[in-house]
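User: Run a structure prediction on this.
Assistant: Running it now.
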Amino acid sequence: MLKVLREGGVSGFETNAKVHGREVDFLWRGSNLAVEVDGWDAHKSRVAFERDRAKWAYLKAVGTDVMPIGAQRLKRQPESVLGEILSLRRAA
């Protein structure tokens, strides 16, 4: 994801940032947008899977948009993912 963002000329984000007491993979504070790379490597159990969904629901409830990106999709369609992130940032 970091490579996709850098190659796309995207800046202004923090990595492994805390927002409302929760850590997210990528955060644009000014846009209240968090991006989480979501894949099997990080969720080898039901507990981890459910924990992330609870975190995303909480962040959404307190005003931070969370965009989960599937790791496989990121590998196969980086341009599409980049376009969606840019669209969300413009909308914010």
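The chain has one domain: 2-81.
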